[in-house]
Amino acid sequence: MGTDSAQDLRQTTSGMMWAGILAIIIGIVAIAVPAVASVSIAVLVGILVIVLAVAWLFAAIGSGATTGWKITGVILSVLLLIGGLWILFNPIEATVGLTAVIAIVFIVMGVVRVVAAIGDQSGEGRWVIALGGILAIIIGILIAADFPSSAAWAIGLLVGIQFLFDGIGLVMLSSAMKSAARR
Q1: Number of CB atoms found within 10 A of residue 183's CB
Q2: What is residue 3's predicted lDDT score, i.e. its pLDDT?
Q3: Residue 75, CB-side half-sphere exposure with 13 Å CA sphere
Q4: In terms of CB atoms within 10 Å, which of 23, 83, 178, 181 comes out highest?
Q5: Worst-scoring range by mean pLDDT, 34-43, 96-105, 174-183?
């Protein structure tokens, strides 16, 4: 392996390792204090919606589209701005709404996975898809059954688990890449 390639690999694996460690730390913190993580995620969603509102406004005004399109774009950007600001100023209520959506999405995703597994005639791996679907349904039902109290833990816990596993995956991938490069 050339010097440039070896240097690139070291930088890549080092970056992956640090990203993985950071993701693990964030995941552990989110799991430890899921209510804080849930509200923080709602605030982030609010900020992203405001950014989207600004983008829509620039797209509507700056486009060479018809006046009707421009008016529609401005109206949409104003609605997005109002929604984003509402989320920012009411993050707990927004967390409750996001939690309701998450419960519904988990249940629907789970049902779709189970139906897909049943319909899969190849048989290979269908039990994994069905198991994932059943788990998604159970998670969705658990969130819905504890609603609205689940808003205090659901989003933060789920995001924390995702960060934790992504971080572990990045650390393991980085280590495997380093080992492969040494051989």
Answers
A1: 4
A2: 57
A3: 6
A4: 23
A5: 174-183
* CA gyration radius, the chain: 22
Per-residue confidence at 36, pLDDT binned at 50, 70, 90? very high
Could you report the per-residue pLDDT of 3-20, keeping only the tens digit for each? 567 677 777 788 889 999
Summarize pLDDT for 119-165 with one digit per residue, the tens.
877 777 788 888 988 999 999 999 999 998 998 899 999 899 999 99
Task: Look at the block and give the residue holding tokens 């421009």.
Answer: 70
**CA distance linking residue 24 with residue 15, whole number of Å:** 14
Residues, the chain? 183
| Per-residue tokens: 43 | 């605030």
Q: Which amino acid is at 173?
A: L
pTM: 0.70
Whether the CA torsion 142, 143, 148, 152 is positive or negative: it is positive
Give the Cβ contact number of residue 144 at 10 Å: 17
- Residue 142 has a CB neighbour count (10 Å cut-off) of 14
Sign of CA dihedral 162, 164, 167, 168: negative
Q: Domain map of the chain by residue range?
A: 3-182
